[in-house]
Design a protein that fits this description.
This protein has 273 residues and is an alpha+beta fold. The protein is built from 5 helices and 15 strands. It has an 8-stranded mixed beta sheet, with helices on one face. A 7-stranded mixed beta sheet has the order 6-7-5-8-11-10-9, with helices on one face.
Length: 273
């Protein structure tokens, strides 16, 4: 009787712990075309320093994908690559982070000496040129999550044309932020929000160029059926810069150039990591 009672208590205790534990961060569920945001790759001189920021302040969870360490936040995986990045502007300017309340996150960054004490603005700069946009929204998630990849583009193709291209090739939905001022190619239901956004170019003369070699080196779209997706892109005249292959981490990957000539990765196998 005592053993039975003890076993029942243990089971209830384990159930309570499991129920109380937060669910692991996952990529967003794919859209009808099997596409979601995958990973965002930053090139930084000190990987350990940046890992500490993402883990301590953002609550990121380290996970090994094969031999590569990635940091999970809701909606995306963050990958830190050691190197010296070019500081010129890339098409993909920054990663957007959103939540119901980002004040605790700002306080952590300020306390760690990472952000200025007046860091209440829209953009927050982490060390070594890592740029983020902070968006507080009552409809946002409880924990800081990936919300969008933001392109700053030249005059042509236009922002609307860029959105239309991602809609055509990857089944994104037509949407916009800031009362229509920022066209968005939405990859998720509106109450979740993972998108690629487009606004006019800023900064250096000549405008942005491909992100490879920049601080935000590239991002990936996680897809179901990468081989079929690449064939579709090729049939539509999209330039494939790296054919489908399985990398050392066991992830199927490919690279293509989007409507702006920016290098973007396709992956299959990150979902659920």
């Amino acid at each position: 009787m005592k053993k039975t009672l003890l076993a029942a208590v243990c089971c209830l205790t384990l159930l309570a712990v499991a129920t109380a534990a937060p669910l692991p961060a996952q990529l967003m569920a794919p859209n009808a075309s099997g596409v979601s945001l995958g990973a965002v790759y930053f090139t930084v001189p000190d990987v350990d320093k940046h890992k500490k920021i993402w883990v301590d302040a953002f609550g990121a969870k380290p996970v090994m994908v094969g031999k590569t360490e990635m940091l999970k936040i809701p909606g995306a995986l963050i990958v830190l690559k050691k190197g010296t990045a070019e500081m010129t502007a890339g098409f993909a300017d920054h990663l957007g982070i959103w939540a119901k309340d980002l004040k605790p996150l700002r306080a952590k960054l300020i306390a760690a000496g990472i952000a200025d004490k007046d860091a209440s603005g829209q953009f927050v700069n982490l060390p070594d040129g890592v740029k983020l946009e902070f968006i507080e929204d009552p409809m946002g998630p409880d924990a800081p999550a990936a919300q969008h990849i933001h392109y700053f583009i030249p005059a042509a193709p236009t922002a609307q044309e860029g959105r239309a291209w991602y809609m055509k090739e990857f089944g994104a939905a037509e949407n916009a932020r800031r009362n229509g001022a920022v066209p968005s190619a939405l990859f998720s239901p509106g109450d979740k929000w993972i998108s690629i956004d487009f606004t006019g170019a800023r900064g250096a003369a000549g405008g942005p160029t491909t992100n490879q070699g920049k601080v935000l080196d590239h991002f990936s779209l996680e897809v179901k059926g990468i081989d079929a997706m690449v064939k579709k892109l090729q049939a539509d005249g999209v330039k494939i810069t790296k054919p489908v292959s399985t990398n050392a981490d066991g992830i199927k990957t490919a690279m293509f150039q989007d409507v702006y000539g920016n290098d973007v990765e396709l992956t299959e196998g990150l979902a659920g990591k």
